[in-house]
Structure formats: structure tokens, C-alpha cells
Design goal:
By secondary structure, the chain is of the alpha+beta class. The strands form five sheets. Strands 16-12-14-13-19-20-18-21 form an eight-stranded antiparallel sheet. Strands 5-6-10-8-9 form a five-stranded antiparallel sheet. Strands 1-2-4-3 form a four-stranded mixed sheet, with no helix packed on it. Helix 8 runs antiparallel to helix 9. Bound molecules: flavin-adenine dinucleotide.
């Protein structure tokens, strides 16, 4: 058994690590449940399997086919989105959807059906998936599309790794003429201003997202920076270089308590004041725009040995976002808060998280029971709004919030591979075992 940590470094977990090098490699002959993992960039326990076996998919990192005319990529599931970008951007293509880090595998992007700053235009990653190959413990490999093994396809997209091992996938790409993003950053003072900005921007901008101050009190709560952007049209000049291949790295786990009420307020204050003008236009390399956090490797160590949580919900009403922020600020604030309005796209997976509504992601250092009690209060607000929590970021949602968040879960259950499980799944079905088995 070896320790395996997810990005939030909570909970602690040990499993047998079983690397897969070839698609034909046999699955381990063990009675313990298994689970495929990619880069472990999920914050909580969807990529953990305490006491079981973790199938390490990173060595499955081969490109299979790239059509630079049609814009279509086929690769093994352990290829990261960053590696895909390295191949496709020079040929004038981009990912159809990308999360806020490039260090995630294609398999992980499918299993969490990830979303990005263009959800209002493009939906989630699964909407661009043409086919996938899935190995199950019955020894068979299923080649799934929306129409061939369509039900298994819809269960596997956003299926949290529970339907088997994704071996490879084919997805369509977005044409671009430049690696640069023409972006604008706009300061706003209130959430009402944010909602106006996002309403006005979504039609003309491929990408929109906002950082908000969720640590300062009073009238400062909810102020923020609204980012919007489009792929730049190639002009031949003004190309800012790509970020250094080797980013700065946090060298070791920082002492407990480094991120606290005071440092969170300071960080949020400085971040708000980094831009003096109301509006700022510029062209930036796509890595600066999409992956600012990748510029500091292992930044999760800043949160110390107890780790941290991200609470990402989707709710329908702006008033619920305001209420959540009030609670958060009253109990000490959040270190990083991000807001985005999702578009109205049909979910490609039975357990897809992204849906019409407003998504708010809040980071918190692990402060033990004080934090748990705040998050329970937020759970009630999300439940009352018929909202949902994102499994990719979760390590604690109670079973009743999971079942309320994902009303299609009973249709999903028959597609679970009996040899696969995860800590997340055991946790959210713990009190419903009879119903779920
Ligand atoms: C800085 C940062 C920013 C982020 N921003 C966003 C964002 O904007 N939007 C968003 O949606 N998410 C975001 N995330 C979350 C991240 O995109 C997802 O958690 C993603 O699924 C992680 O991919 P991974 O390769 O690390 O997979 P892991 O975390 O290792 O696994 C994730 C899930 O995929 C399953 N899985 C992995 N590989 C396979 C496979 N080959 N076959 C079957 N199942 C498999 C695992 O079992 C697990 O259930 C962010 C994460 C970080 C750290």
C-alpha cells in the first residue's frame, strides 16, 4: 500500500498502486475494488480508493491520430490536456473545453465531464467527445459513441471512473489562428454589476469568468474582476512568450495556519488592487489566460499538512450566491473565489455537474469542525435552491445532497462496473446502501 493524495490533500488515503503501460495490460486479479486515476487533480476523494487498487493511467500517454484538417484528436486516456495543446496549437487548433489547469488527463476530463470559461458557448468536455474505448472487468473493451453502447457512453461521461477504465478517446477541436487571447479585465463593485457584465458579455465573448473578493467585509464583499476574452486573430506581431516551461514551485508543505483570516484578507485586498484602471485590455498567451495557477507548481502545499477544501456549487438564484457569500465572510472568508454563469446546454452525462445556473467555487484551508459547520450551512442553501455540488471538488458532501444534486443517479447505478469503486462513491451512498446496491 502507498499513500495517494488528491489535490486538496484531504482525506489521507492508501491504496495498491498499479501502473498500466499498455492498453492490453491485464487488470489486477484482486478482490479489492479498483479505480483508474489520472493526475490526481481532483480536490477530494473521487480519485481515492482507500484499501483498494488505483490503476495509474499516466503511462497510457500515446497519441493515436490527429486530423489537422478536420480538427479531431484521438489519444490514450493518460495524455494530459497540456500535452494535447502542445501538439494542436501549432496546427491552429485548441481544446473545445479546458478546466483551470492543463495538468489533467483526457480520462479525468471525461470522468468528471469538466467545464471551462466557455461553458455558456460550448457546454462541457463530454459534449465534444466522439467516442471512447472502455475496458470493463468482464474482460471486454467497449467502443462507445452516443449511438453505439449509447447508455454506457452517457454513464461514463461524468461517471467518476466507476464504469470501468477509459483506454482512449476521440474528441473534436476548436479552430484558432493564434495562441494569444484578446482579453479584457473589468473591475466591478457589486454582484449585481457582475451579473450585468456577464449578461452583456456572453454573446460576444467565448470566455467569461470572475474572481470575487470573498474575504473582505461590508460593501467590499462581492467586488471583483471580470475576465472576458476571445482567441486573438493572428496579426503577425505582439506575441507575448509562453510562460516558462518550469514554473516556480512551492518546495515543501508549509506550516499549518499560514493561510488564515488575515492572510486571506491581505491576498484578496492585493488581488483587487492589482488593477488600478476600471478596464484593462491586452493580448496574453493562452497559458496565462487559462492556467494562471499552473504558474506556481504544487501551490496546494501552501495550505499546510491538513490540506484544504474547495466548495463548488451551482445554484439558480443570484440571491443564493449573495447569501452564501455573507455566510462565508462572516466565518472568516475564502482564500480564492471564482464565479461563472453556466449556459443552457444539455448535459452529456447522467452525472454531469455543469447545468444552467450560477457556479461559485470557494477555497478554504482545512480548519476542522469550524469549517465543516460552515459548509453544512452552505449545503442547506444549495439544497433549498435545488442546486448541486461538484464531485470533482468534493470530500464531504452528505448522501442526501448527492442524491438531490444528481437526480439521474438511479439510472447510473446499473452501469457501475462491479469491480470498481471509490471513496467518494462509498461515502455518498453510505446511508443508502440498500437503495444503491
Ligand atoms: C487548479 C485546478 C483548477 C481546476 N479547474 C477546473 C475547472 O475550471 N473546471 C472543472 O471542471 N474542473 C476543474 N478542476 C478539476 C479537474 O479538472 C478535474 O478534477 C479533473 O477530472 C482532474 O483530472 P485528473 O487527470 O487529475 O483525474 P483524477 O483527479 O486522477 O481523477 C478524476 C476522476 O476521473 C477518473 N479517471 C481518471 N482517469 C480515468 C480513466 N482513464 N478511466 C476512467 N476513469 C478515470 C477517476 O477515477 C476520478 O473519478 C481543476 C483542478 C485544479 C487542481
Amino acid at each position: 500500500m502507498a499513500q495517494f493524495r488528491s489535490w486538496g490533500r484531504y482525506p489521507r488515503s492508501e491504496a495498491v498502486l498499479y501502473p498500466l503501460h499498455w492498453q492490453e495490460d491485464p487488470l489486477p486479479p484482486t478482490g479489492e475494488p479498483m479505480l483508474a486515476v489520472g493526475m490526481g487533480r481532483s480536490y477530494g476523494d473521487v480519485c481515492l480508493n482507500h484499501g483498494g487498487t488505483l490503476l495509474l493511467t499516466r503511462p497510457l500517454n500515446r497519441f493515436i491520430a490527429f486530423d489537422p484538417v478536420a480538427g479531431c484528436m484521438t489519444c490514450e486516456a493518460g495524455v494530459t490536456l497540456g500535452e494535447v495543446l502542445d501538439v494542436i496549437v501549432p496546427h491552429g487548433w485548441f481544446l473545445p473545453v479546458t478546466p483551470g489547469t492543463q495538468h489533467v488527463t483526457v480520462g479525468g476530463a471525461i470522468a468528471n465531464d469538466v467545464h471551462g470559461k466557455n461553458h455558456h458557448r460550448a457546454g462541457s468536455f463530454g459534449a465534444h467527445l466522439q467516442r471512447l474505448a472502455l475496458r470493463r472487468s468482464d474482460g471486454l473493451t467497449y467502443h462507445c459513441t452516443a449511438t453505439t453502447h449509447g447508455d454506457l457512453f452517457r454513464a461514463t461521461v461524468g461517471g467518476l471512473g466507476l464504469t470501468g477504465l477509459i483506454l482512449s478517446a476521440e474528441f473534436t477541436l476548436l479552430p484558432i489562428t493564434s495562441p494569444m487571447i484578446a482579453m479584457e479585465s473589468i473591475r466591478f463593485d457589486t454582484l449585481a454589476e457582475y451579473f450585468t457584465l456577464t449578461r452583456e458579455s456572453d454573446a460576444g465573448h467565448e470566455y467569461t469568468v470572475a474572481w470575487i473578493d470573498a474575504a473582505s467585509c461590508g460593501s467590499k464583499t462581492g467586488r471583483g474582476l471580470f475576465l472576458r476574452g476571445n482567441h486573438a486573430i493572428a496579426s503577425g506581431g505582439n506575441t507575448r512568450p509562453a510562460p516558462a516551461a518550469r514554473p516556480w514551485q512551492i518546495p515543501c508543505t508549509m506550516p499549518r495556519g499560514l493561510i488564515n483570516r488575515t492572510t486571506m484578507r491581505c491576498f484578496n485586498h492585493l488581488y483587487w488592487h492589482r488593477q488600478r484602471a476600471r478596464r484593462h485590455h491586452c493580448e496574453v498567451h493562452y497559458r496565462h489566460f487559462f492556467y494562471p495557477l499552473d504558474g506556481l507548481a504544487a501551490w496546494n502545499r501552501l495550505y499546510g499538512p491538513r490540506g484544504f477544501f474547495q466548495y463548488q456549487c451551482v445554484v439558480t438564484q443570484p440571491a443564493v450566491v449573495e447569501e452564501i457569500l455573507r455566510w462565508v465572510v462572516r466565518s472568516g472568508g475564502s482564500s480564492l473565489a471564482v464565479l461563472k454563469v453556466f449556459g443552457n446546454h444539455p448535459a452529456p452525462g447522467l452525472l454531469s455537474f455543469a447545468r444552467p445556473g450560477i457556479t461559485l467555487a470557494l477555497d478554504f484551508p482545512n480548519r476542522g469542525h469550524r469549517l465543516f459547520s460552515l459548509l453544512q450551512t452552505l449545503d442547506e442553501l444549495v439544497l433549498a435552491d435545488n442546486g448541486a455540488l461538484y464531485p470533482a471538488k468534493d470530500a464531504r458532501m452528505p448522501p442526501r445532497l448527492f442524491t438531490a444534486s444528481f437526480p439521474h443517479w438511479p439510472q447510473f447505478v446499473p452501469f457501475i462496473d462491479p469491480a470498481f469503486s471509490s471513496e467518494f462513491w462509498q461515502r455518498v451512498t453510505a446511508t443508502d446502501k440498500g437503495a444503491v446496491s
